[in-house]
Amino acid sequence: MSHLDPYGGAEARGWESPDRSASLPWPDPDVEPGPWARGRQPGTELYAEPNTRGQTDRPADRDRYGPFDERGGPGPRESGSSPHGRNRRLDFGPGDAPTAQIPPVRLGDGRDHDDAPTTQLAAVPADGVWESGAPGPDPQEPPGRGHRGRRRAGAGRPPNQQSASRGGRNLPAAISVGAALGAAVLLPLFLYTPAFLLVLAAAFGVGIWEMSRAVRRQEAEVPLVPLITGGVLTVTLAWFAGPDALLLGLLVTVAGTLLWRLGDGTRNLRRDMTAATMTAVYVPFLGGFAALLAASPGDGPLRVLVTLVAVVLSDTGGYAAGANFGKRPMAPTISPKKSWEGFAGSVGAAALGSALLLWLLFDVAPWWGAVFGMAVAGAAVLGDLAESMIKRDLGVKDMSSLLPGHGGLMDRLDSVLFAVPTAYLLLVVFVPAVN
User: Fold this and answer.
1) pLDDT tens track for 411-423
2) Which domain holds residue 279?
3) What is the rounded end-to-end Cα distance, in angstroms, of the chain?
């Protein structure tokens, strides 16, 4: 049987003959009209319309009833079409939002509840503006990520508050703790000076404990008992016997720590003794100069006062200048927050305050007082950088969390420990001791 030419003959092929009434696997607009074929003229070929993006072939009275809405309800509008029905963009109107049709969840009793999961869902408009007038999600922000540093507020969960200052401190806690520390130092110093020795011994004992915890991060074990005992002995000898006894106390502390450590064997002895010697020099030896200042006959408390005021002015001036004008980092690999502008603020504030204070208390010429303030400020900044370098090498941020807003006690003593030897030597020259 010869086949007819499918494009030239008038007679249909066998499978298209009218006597076969097999149902087509897809609806034909000429045979099985359905809702999808509404708006088309009879005999129109299904995929013959051109690609008219932005136009529609539906009547105007059916503008909101899309071809996929078989229930007669409102549906999305098509803003474009393609020859094969692909790449169609659906534009939602004010009432066509996806969440506008979600009914509230009933929690088993047949009544609507305000705390049901879907009662808070609002329609998402196409223009990106919500009902409250607030703009919607930022189109420039990556999807799935919220604003950095904030969390989404909701019922019973207010947005988080960040009370940290520009320099990274919690200022209310730092000021209150600093005031308490100042009172704990100045009250014994002026009311009953020998009690100041107990304050020094307690402070250096806590500092040795914090240092032992920090060096443990590098697997170094420091004997606490001989170190704390030797530290208290060092400060006491300096108070009663002067500078020579301070050096003697350091030697006794290191020797006692070595003998104690030898009781545990010689394994890792060099590592542990290096950490122990650094702790003994850094905390009780340098801090012992505060005992020398306070034990000066006649004006010991005033010497301690001018030293502490110079350190506080240095810290405050450096913080204010660095937070407002700091641009050039001073030592970025050690302390990224310190800047040369902050250092200038430290030196300037300490020089002005010390010039006035030494002139009023000791009748020292203002320029010598300014030199004293500048030297103490430089030593305080070096002490701060030295501890920052130690903490960076040990891999810790703060020595401890003992003082809110300050970290550990050693985080407050770092600048003082370098400042008191400088102040002691300068005051011996500028203000000779009264015997």
Assistant:
1) 888 899 999 999 9
2) 186-295
3) 139
